[in-house]
Amino acid sequence: MSPQGIAVSTDLEQQYRTAKGPIARSPWQMIWLLAQGLASALVAAVTGYMANWVRTSAPCDNQHGPTGLGNRRHHHPASAGPLSAAQRTALAGA
């Protein structure tokens, strides 16, 4: 690993160690381990994620930087669900 690679790896480790909670921490751990040269399959075994998910995390980091990592589930619009507006209102009033 080059000196620049060591600095990057140290920064990634710091992000991993200071992340709040396991959902925020997991992507940083994956990227940190990949930056150390570990294979996707080994990173998957260590983190408990599927190898395919590990492989898709690295391009998100490369393309979007730190904002590309993490839990983006809360930013996706939720579906309206099976109830109509009138049914949701009636249920809320029950």
Descriptive notes:
The longest helix is centred in the N-terminal third of the chain and has 16 residues, at 3-18. This protein starts with a helix and ends with a helix. It is mainly alpha-helical and 94 residues long. It has one domain. 65% of the residues lie in helices and 0% in strands.
Low-confidence stretches: none
Tell me the span between the first and last alpha carbons.
Answer: 63 Å
Beta fraction of the residues? under 5%
- Rg, nearest Å: 19 Å
How many domains is the backbone divided into? 1
Averaged pLDDT: 77
Helix content: 55-70%
SSE series: HHHHH
Q: What class do helices, strands and sheet pairing give?
A: mainly alpha
How are the SSEs placed, and which strands pair?
Elements: H1 3-18, H2 22-35, H3 40-47, H4 51-64, H5 85-93
Kindly summarize this structure in a few lines.
This protein is mainly α and 94 residues long. 65% of the residues lie in helices and 0% in strands.
Keywords:
single chain, 94 residues, 65% helix, mainly alpha, 5 helices
